[in-house]
Design a protein that fits this description.
With 307 residues, the chain is α/β, with parallel strands linked by helices. 49% of the residues lie in helices and 8% in strands. It contains 11 helices and 7 strands. Strands 1-3-7-6-2 form a 5-stranded mixed beta sheet. Strands 4-5 form a two-stranded antiparallel sheet. Strand 4 and strand 5 form a beta hairpin. The longest helix has 28 residues. The two termini are 30 Å apart.
Length: 307
């Protein structure tokens, strides 16, 4: 994929190495993710009276020791010995590292593609933001960790990506290559497109009345449509002359490797079809290819007929 030297998106928020981006212990990342799905409602609510009293007592204790916690909170950090601040700031990767440049470029290409498609239909495309993080972070859908995998949160219109997943994609899933990585990003952006089109809100509302098995079946259709949308993006990149020999095969291999049946066979040696929530390998390959071959939204109707 010839991505170097192309426009880079400004809609990337880099939280890697940010000690303040660690999340809340209440729940894990929700939304729509890759390669394993499902979301959990985020816990909320204010502080209890007991908690407030406890915090006041802690504040007074520190005040008596000559430590002003309000000043500490205002500065955003408290030194706990030599080298503390240096070790925290030293974990942040450079802003222009190759991974960031790659993600910014792929996101910019999705922006160009979907702006054009939406404009052709008389609509305005709202660009999502993409959050790069390492280890853990917080989203409007709850706490996200590296174990959550890349996901899209409808609550804040952001894609969350721990870029260590790209290495896992290659080492664990056997899906290497820059276009395989671009497929991950474009799949999550596909969920953003679904959100803008009103598909995700309808699904989230409907699944509250569904059994787990029914919700899983509907989730498969949602995920396969995001694959198809990713394929549409792939078609537009091909038309620009960005793709190189073997790029399409990289994306199709990635789709193959993260199908529900393939993942379950790899992890437990057998499959449980009623638990599928992203689609089989064959389905994921077929729907990405359908979007790629057609380049048309109308080709991505996964909700009518068999998938």
């Amino acid at each position: 994929m010839e991505w170097r030297g192309r426009r880079q998106s400004d809609n990337v928020e880099d939280r890697r190495g940010d000690p303040t981006s660690g999340g809340s212990p209440f729940g894990r990342g929700g939304g729509f993710n890759f390669p394993s799905g499902g979301g959990v409602r985020r816990a909320g609510g204010g502080l209890s009276i007991g908690t407030i009293i406890f915090l006041v007592v802690i504040y007074l204790i520190f005040k008596a020791m000559g430590i002003d916690l309000m000043q500490v909170l205002d500065t955003g950090s408290m030194s706990s010995g030599p080298g503390y601040e240096q070790s925290q700031s030293g974990t942040r990767p450079p802003a222009n590292d190759e991974m960031t440049a790659f993600v910014r470029t792929v996101l910019a290409e999705t922006e160009d593609t979907w702006h054009g498609i939406f404009q052709s239909q008389g609509k305005e495309y709202e660009e999502p933001r993409l959050v790069l993080f390492s280890g853990q972070t917080e989203s409007a859908c709850g706490f996200a960790s590296a174990a959550t995998g890349p996901f899209y949160c409808p609550g804040d219109h952001k894609v969350y990506l721990d870029t260590a997943f790209f290495q896992e994609l290659s080492d664990r899933f056997g899906a290497s290559g820059d276009f395989a990585e671009a497929y991950v990003v474009s799949h999550e952006v596909g969920h953003h497109v679904q959100n803008l089109l009103g598909i995700l809100p309808k699904f989230n509302q409907a699944r509250q009345r569904m059994s787990e098995e029914e919700a899983n079946k509907m989730s498969v259709r949602v995920e396969l449509q995001a694959d198809c949308f990713a394929g549409i993006w792939g078609k537009y990149t091909q038309q620009k002359g960005i793709l190189e020999a073997g790029d399409l095969e990289e994306a199709l291999n990635a789709a193959q490797q993260i199908g529900d049946d393939t993942l379950q066979k790899r992890s437990q040696g057998y499959v449980v079809p009623e638990s599928f929530n992203h689609g089989t390998s064959a389905q994921r390959v077929r729907w990405f290819k359908r979007g790629f071959d057609s380049g048309q939204l109308t080709a991505c109707d996964t909700f009518s007929g068999p998938v």
